[in-house]
Design a protein that fits this description.
This protein has eleven helices and twelve strands. With about 475 residues, it is an alpha+beta fold. It has a five-stranded antiparallel beta sheet. The longest helix is centred in the middle third of the chain and has 54 residues.
Length: about 475
């Protein structure tokens, strides 16, 4: 890389480093510090613009007033004939121009030279130049400009005389005007500095008073983290801070509800696990006592005990699987696929038929329907609905299953569900009084409700035309094309 190429690259790296350093400094500042800084900069910039504009306007106005007055007096003196009446040795009275601090200079062109004759008090003369020559030769109109002599600025106005080649030039020192502008500049600087200080004070006040609700919210969040007290905070007003406080309260309520559900889940799970574990321990104790005492259990009794142990282990496995499924509070995974519900239903029916008691029939009618979701979760929900219908069906009964436009309807011929219990059957671990002695964990229909919610569907319990229970599970989707099956 050549030196000419290295210099811009180094400059760019330096600018990037400075930006990163500035960003880190800004990030390290507190919110109140950033509010004060931004308020001070914004208001200070506005005050600076106003003060600078005021000073510039005043300066231009003073110059314009001075120029208009000086040019008017010069034109009045020239039109009164002073240029022709007074010789170069005579003095023009100061009253003729209305001021005693002016320099009056007659200009006369001799050939290509411009001669200047002062009729003043002998002060240093501003030297005329090309603009004044052109005025004297009547090539241009009156001119006015600033000429510096010995460090003193003069405002010089020039008008043409009565004859070509003559002109009257009047010069007035700008000392008083510049002194006034200097004082005005000092005043503007002081006002600007006071404006910045007032802006900083205003920013501090805004940060202190405006961010008070934020500090209260922060203190409450720290208290929640320290004490786990989920009591909502009072909300006042309807501004953005109030909305933030309301959202924080909603979060606390959701967190409290989640904690209550977790506690209830643990308590209910402990209650449900206690029964099969007690039965399993009792059966194992009987087998151990029989072996230790040398007794020989009848084969029928031994088989019954082993079958009971196996059933309890299977119930425990089912309960643990249901608990794990219900403990998953995360939403449906983003990696999903299209699911043909008739295929899922066929698989679920085949699984349930393998454990259906003899004499219970399952009739199935289905129409193609495609949803987007988790096929394993949907199949488990279908299986739970069918298991529930088979479990409550009496011998020689028929379970009727219909799938139409994504709505699965399962009717059984059992005792049905009381109207008061139809909303509670989908709660975790809830079981009717008449079902306490029957196998099951009380979680199957909860998993169905959870699956329906994750797939934007719905589930409800109703009365079957056959007198039993009807469970309806609806999942949104689209009709399957003929070639998709």
């Amino acid at each position: 890389m050549t030196p000419a190429q290295a210099a811009p690259a180094a400059l760019a790296r330096g600018r990037a480093w400075w930006r990163r350093r500035s960003d880190r400094r800004l990030e390290r500042r507190t919110l109140a510090g950033r509010v004060i800084l931004l308020t001070t900069v914004a208001v200070g910039f506005a005050v600076t613009i106003v003060v600078a504009a005021t000073y510039a306007t005043a300066r231009v106005q003073m110059y314009n007033t001075l120029d208009d007055s000086l040019l008017e007096r010069t034109q009045a003196a020239a039109s009164a004939g002073f240029v022709g009446e007074y010789s170069v040795t005579q003095k023009l009275p100061s009253w003729a121009l209305g001021a005693a601090d002016v320099q009056i200079i007659f200009l006369k062109v001799n050939g290509n030279r411009l001669n200047a004759y002062s009729v003043g008090d002998g002060s240093p003369l501003p030297q005329p130049d090309l603009p004044e020559y052109r005025v004297a030769m009547r090539q241009t109109g009156p001119s006015i400009r600033t000429i510096t002599v010995d460090g003193i600025d003069y405002r010089v106005a020039t008008v043409a005389g009565n004859q070509v080649g003559q002109a009257l030039m009047v010069a007035q020192p700008m000392t008083a005007t510049e002194r006034t502008l200097a004082k005005l500049g000092i005043v503007a600087l002081v006002v600007g500095a006071l404006g910045v200080l007032v802006a900083a004070a205003a920013g501090w006040g805004v940060a202190r008073n405006g961010l008070r609700p934020v500090r209260l919210l922060t203190a409450k969040a720290e208290e929640v983290a320290r004490t786990e007290d989920l009591t909502p905070i009072p909300v006042q007003g309807d501004d953005e801070i109030a909305r933030l406080s309301g959202a924080f309260n909603q979060m606390l309520l959701s967190l409290g509800a989640s904690r209550d559900r977790q506690r209830r889940l643990v308590a209910d799970a402990g209650h449900e696990l206690r029964t099969p574990l007690t039965s399993l321990r009792t059966n194992l104790d009987l087998l151990d006592q029989a072996r230790g005492s040398g007794m020989t259990l009848p084969e029928e009794a031994r088989t019954e005990l082993l079958d009971d142990v196996r059933a309890q282990v299977e119930e425990l496995s089912t309960l643990v699987g249901d608990l794990v499924e219900l403990a998953r509070d995360e939403p449906l995974a983003q990696v999903i696929e299209s699911v043909e519900l008739t295929e899922v239903l066929d698989s679920a029916v085949a699984r349930v038929r393998r454990r259906t008691p003899p004499g219970v029939e399952i009739e199935v009618r289905s129409e193609p329907w495609v949803v987007v979701g988790d096929p394993a979760a949907i199949e488990r929900a279908y299986t739970n609905v069918l298991d529930n219908a088979v479990k409550w069906s009496p011998p020689e009964a028929t379970v009727r299953v219909e799938l139409a436009r994504g709505v699965l309807t399962v009717d059984d011929e059992g005792p049905g569900i009381a109207e008061a219990d139809r909303q509670r059957v989908f709660e975790r671990f809830w079981r009717a009084e008449e079902s306490r002695s029957m196998p099951g964990s009380g979680l199957g229909l909860s998993i169905v409700a959870q699956t329906a919610a994750r797939h934007s569907g719905s589930v409800r319990a109703d009365r079957s035309p056959a007198g039993g229970a009807r469970l309806v599970l609806a999942l949104p989707g689209d009709p399957a094309e003929p070639g998709e099956r």
